[in-house]
Specification:
Number of strands: 11
Number of helices: 1
Strand order of the largest sheet: 2-11-6-5-4
Order of helices and strands: EHEEEEEEEEEE
Oligomer: single chain
Structural class: mainly beta
Largest sheet: 5 strands, antiparallel
Radius of gyration: 14 Å
Strand content: 35-45%
Length: 136
């Protein structure tokens, strides 16, 4: 069965990354670093089985984070295209999921203008990298 998820994003958020991504603003990079501070990257996985759209954060047009409470953040650097404008707050990311596997690498997200309802772009999901606090 095919499920459709609408992922709404709030105002543009800063960025984060171990190495700054070309074209990423300093504000976006700072936001990304703040959200990942104190967390260690784990082994990438191809699917994120459970997520809630309200737990998503668009860092910029190339990076999306999925929060799993306070303990884990899943980072997705889009693989193919950019979701132009998705972090602006004026757009939504709509994904189609098949087979109940959750959101997976290669799934296509459509960027939809919230005012007109028109699709204005698309991008493909990349691997999901977990970031967790190290155990002490």
């Amino acid at each position: 069965m095919r499920g459709v998820s609408v992922l709404l994003f709030s105002a543009a958020l800063g960025a984060c990354s171990t190495a700054p991504q070309p074209g990423r603003s300093a504000k976006a990079e700072a936001h990304l670093q703040k959200l990942l501070a104190g967390k260690v990257a784990g082994v990438p996985v191809s699917c994120l089985p459970n997520y809630r759209s309200e737990d998503m954060v668009a860092i910029d047009d190339n990076t999306i984070l999925f929060r799993e409470g306070n303990r884990r953040i899943w980072r997705n650097d889009l693989n193919g295209g950019t979701c132009n404008g998705v972090a602006s707050g004026s757009y939504a990311l709509v994904t189609n999921r098949f087979g109940g596997l959750g959101l997976c690498r290669g799934d296509i997200g459509r960027v939809v203008d919230l005012r007109s309802g028109m699709t204005v772009g698309s991008c493909a999901m990349g691997d999901f990298v977990p970031y967790s606090s190290p155990r002490g």
